[in-house]
Design goal:
Blueprint lengths: L3 E7 L5 H10 E7 L4 E3 L4 E3 L2 H8 L4 E2 L7 H8 L5 E5 L7 H4 L6 E5 L7 E2 L2 H7 L4 E8 L9 E8 L6 H24 L15 E2 L15 H10 L6 E5 L2 E12 L10 E5 L2 E5 L4 E9 L5 E2 H8 L15
Parallel strand pairs: 1-2, 1-6, 2-5, 6-7, 8-11
Antiparallel strand pairs: 3-4, 7-9, 9-10, 12-13, 13-16, 14-15, 15-16, 16-17
Length: 318
């Protein structure tokens, strides 16, 4: 059977395994990725991870500044591709782009649709305390992750797993799903199952403000927030006027009232234990703005924190 001609849209590390998988089952005639961006202390231009792999594989790369133009859609149509695969590209595609390949565009989306439609499904799955996550191969339409689902795969979320760790695992799972099911899609053997819009939930773009800890939540909910905001934007709280990032934590007790929410109950070699609305949280790693990360016990010693000090949801004016 003749190999399909495919276009790949993708940008971050999450999309890299899928590009590699696609190259093994189809002829990739073009890789579309976002432009190089300044990165690092020197703010030098750095190529997206997908571009780096594409160049290694000897694949042609296009980095358009604009994708919502008739000219871009015409450029894609001229390739006479059978399909396009979109994985975390980071831009909304027009109807003209979606219709450019013969079979349209399919997407590897990192949630079990219709749950968690949107830009940050992995982070919000953890923040919500989901114990199961997954990926869907879906047909793209003009809505936000609203197209019919072609195939799906799931895995269990670890009790202490962070968004960073789950992202790595789902990127591999998505590539495996793509490599296994794409040949069936090309042969017309994958039924397209419409999503139930009534069951849809949203996973909006992450903002730094999403990482602010509300100690009026249970210890489990705060722990989920810390995990879901790691590594970016990071969970944080305030100690008087000081903004403090919480990099590591685990639930110390799940139930009971241990004190006013946000109050430091105890400090020992394991870390700093803080009361929540229900239960308590052991913080193991902290970071003051402008300083380095350090064990919570060392942070407490350096700040001379007493038991009874209180973290707050909002900064106290200096």
């Amino acid at each position: 059977m003749k190999r399909a001609r495919a276009i790949f849209f993708g940008t971050p590390e999450f999309a890299v395994p899928s590009l590699r998988a696609l190259s093994e089952v189809a002829d990739v005639v073009l890789v579309v990725t976002q432009p190089d961006r300044p990165s690092g202390r020197g703010m030098k231009l750095a190529a997206p991870p997908v571009k780096q792999l594409a160049l290694t594989l000897g694949l042609p790369v296009l980095q358009p500044a604009k994708v919502r133009t008739p000219e871009f859609a015409a450029q894609l149509r001229a390739l006479h591709a059978d399909l396009a695969v979109v994985v975390a590209y980071g831009r909304i595609l027009t109807a003209g782009v979606l219709a450019a390949p013969r079979l349209g565009c399919v997407n590897v989306h990192a949630s079990l649709l219709p749950k968690l439609r949107g830009a940050a499904p992995i982070h919000w799955a953890i923040v919500r305390g989901d114990t199961e996550a997954g990926v869907c191969l879906m047909q793209l339409d003009e809505g936000m992750d609203t197209g019919p689902v072609l195939a799906r795969a799931s895995l269990s979320v670890g009790a202490d797993e962070t968004a960073g760790g789950l992202t790595e695992r789902l990127s591999v799972l998505g590539a495996e799903l793509l490599q296994r099911e794409l040949p069936r899609f090309l042969c017309g053997e994958l039924p397209a199952t419409p999503q139930d819009d009534a069951q849809a939930t949203l996973a909006p773009v992450l903002q730094k403000e999403h990482g602010e800890i509300d100690w009026e939540q249970s210890a489990n909910r705060v722990h989920d927030l810390v995990r879901g905001m790691s590594p970016w934007p990071g969970a944080y709280t305030h100690l008087d006027s000081m903004r403090v990032k919480v990099h590591g934590a685990r639930v110390k007790s799940e139930s009971g009232r241990c004190g006013d929410p946000g109050t430091i109950i105890s400090i020992d070699a394991d870390g700093v234990t803080v009361a929540c609305a229900q239960g308590s949280l052991l913080i193991t790693e902290l970071q003051r703005d402008g300083s380095r990360r350090m064990p919570a016990a060392a942070f407490a010693a350096g700040q001379r924190l007493p038991s009874g000090a209180r973290f707050a949801k909002r900064a106290t004016p200096a």
